[in-house]
Amino acid sequence: MKKHNFYAGPSIxxxxxxxxxAKAVVDFAGTGISLMSISHRSKEFVAVMDEAQQLFKxxxxxxxxxxxxxxxxGASTQFAMVPYNxxxxxxxxxxxxxxxxxxxxxxxxxxxxVVVASSEDKNFAYIPKDYTIPADADxxxxxxxxxxxxxxxxxDMDSPVPLVADMSSDIFSRPVDVSKYALIYGGxxxxxxxxxxxxxxxxxxxxxxxxxxxxxxxxYNTHIEKESMFNTPPVLPVFSALQTLKWLKEKxxxxxxxxxxxxxxxxxxxxxxxxxxxxGTVLNKEDRSLMNVxxxxxxxxxxxxxxxxxxxxxxxxxxxxxxxxxxxFRASTYxxxxxxxxxxxxxxxxxxxxxxx
Length: 357
Ligand SMILES: *Cc1c(COP(=O)(O)O)cnc(C)c1O
Known about the structure:
Layout (H helix, E strand, L loop, with lengths): L3 E2 L9 H12 L16 H17 L6 E6 L2 H13 L3 E6 L2 H10 L4 E7 L20 E5 L1 E2 L4 E2 L10 E4 L16 E5 L10 E6 L16 H6 L9 H16 L2 H22 L3 E3 L11 E6 L7 H10 L2 E2 L10 E4 L6 H18 L1
Parallel strand pairs: 1-13, 3-4, 3-5, 5-8, 8-9
Antiparallel strand pairs: 2-10, 6-7, 9-10, 11-12, 12-14
The chain binds pyridoxal-5'-phosphate.
């Protein structure tokens, strides 16, 4: 039976990415050796690294003065690397979920950390809108897509201080005005590549202003100078990321992908709103994520959660169980998720309605 992959991360990747990677694992670029066994300094892999950085810049329309890095350590290492490199006296954070909280915890190790607003009072079911970013902060940190709670900041805000964003789960889902950000980072395993590579887009001139000593591997400038080749980069995930970027370009880039994502998530939200057995968990519709669609059984139907999960599992839905801190269901609708998977989930929900009415 066909599986419909709604996992939140690691998650669905384009078939193209998987096929190209599988081939390269056996014979990389006609070298007769595996992608897993080739030197990262070989001309074949250096070409992959260069092209991945170029295509990353092209697809996101990244202006001059920014560097794209491919590092290890996951987004979680960036939680510390950002304040290590940028926090002199004070940092400002928006607390929109579990990942924001982890980022805030790390920042506190380096200096005064102000939480300008939080949606924790309602289990992170909305994006706070009314707050002031302190003008004397070294930077303001946001999590654009809250993977666990299904909320998303969908516009590029103006910030009086350098803006830093964790875009782990919505990078390449929409056009981004990179010029409004000082630094963007994320684990690639949501919308781009297998686990193991972390992308960083950094504006070069924001670096070098803190007084502390920074360990070599945690200093962005180390990796900028060596073009992500200071130490061994995650060779295989970088290769896969390049394949996904090629696939995305072929699909028409982020503008085209954004239209598809609006339609895809939109159809699922419409069904959640229409179907009397389900309800969305996000309080304001405008805050609903295009990448992680969270819903629960509607009032009076709470006892049917296990039944729906088992029905959906039987019909090939994989990974739709919600995160334990929200409960219910989470259907992740990343770029690579085909329309037919959304159709299959909607069909499941409609059949559940029919059988239980
Ligand atoms: C998954 C995720 C992370 C954690 O990424 P790791 O690469 O596992 O460290 C951080 N932030 C967001 C928004 C995520 O979705």
